[in-house]
Specification:
Structural class: alpha+beta
Number of strands: 13
Shape: globular
Strand order of the largest sheet: 5-4-6-3-1-13
Length: 406
Amino acid sequence: MLNYTIMEIHNNLQQQFKQLFNDVQDSRLFFAPGRVNLIGEHTDYNGGYVFPCAINLGTYALVRQRNDRLCKFYSLNFDQLGLVEFSLDNLAFQEHHDWANYPKGVMVEAEQRGINFAYGWEIVFWGNLPNGAGLSSSASIEVLMATIINTYYGQPFSGVEMALMAQAAENNYIGVGCGIMDQFASAMGKANCAILLDCNSLEYQYVPLNLAEYTIVITNTNKRRGLVDSKYNERLAECQKALQILQTNYSISALCQLNEQQLQGQKHLFNHEPVIYQRAYHAVSENQRVLSAVAGLKNGVDLKEFGQLMGASHTSLAQDYAVTGIELDSLVASAWRQSGCIGARMTGAGFGGCSVNLVKQTEVANFIQQVGLEYTQATGLVADFYVVKPSAEAREIKINVEGKND
């Protein structure tokens, strides 16, 4: 269903819903986008800027309210796990509930924010985001559940509050120390725009993405990595250590409150911790690259400058932050060699996952063919490619009586 229309997706979800729950009467369709971060990686949990956009891939849910306190969740992406059933009276983490722990965690956070659940739901989920690829499939389903709760309970939460609730679920319930960017982009996306987000203050602004003759192409390494089991939390701890070292001379609460000159002036503090300094240097320099990239877009600078900053970002992520690996490095190096590509970098946490590329629209087919061939030759893996557009925020999709989405 990757390239299906909304109506085709709705029909497929209805078909599965009927098999599980007999009919589709009173069911409602919801969608939450994934995201791609154009520049600004591993700055979010360091109190810096990021520049993501929501994309037109994400997670859908067909939802119906029940008359009791049971919840019955099913995912077409994990059909082998069958129907996950639980009571509102026991929302505790259950390992065998697997993927369903993500929406359950959001329900727990909603309760802590004053939602008194009076009824359960029947829900069929389906997403066209590759799981574990770095496009935020977890944030997408979290924000989707927050949107469902928000809609059924009279919109008590703003988009920012839903993003924070979803982040808290991943931090507290799932156990992944993620920043706010993924959930924020899903809850607050805007068509044809990216979001300049200050992860320290949550101040944000929409920046129009005038890509002209270029388009966004995402490339999936198909090397799956799970955030919980990866070195993501290790990098988080290394940055926290760098912050503690710097706090001996600076009254700061986050690494990205420093600029490069200030950090370099304190390099002597890391004489016995050179790797910790490298981690801090990436965060601080990447933060500056985000601001430079956005300033260029606002001033109408040639997109090639944006592409050069993307390249510098990837180099820093490979050398200073050590989160790329042969798969991502091979994809990006191949992209850089293509005449139709003006920018490429890894996106997401790294350790596998995806790269993001700015490619001339007339060269997309050739780009996919060449990069795919070179990537397979270098790694033995087969990459997947997604041509995406900046999307609007998580929302209910209304289907009118003619069977069209409004």
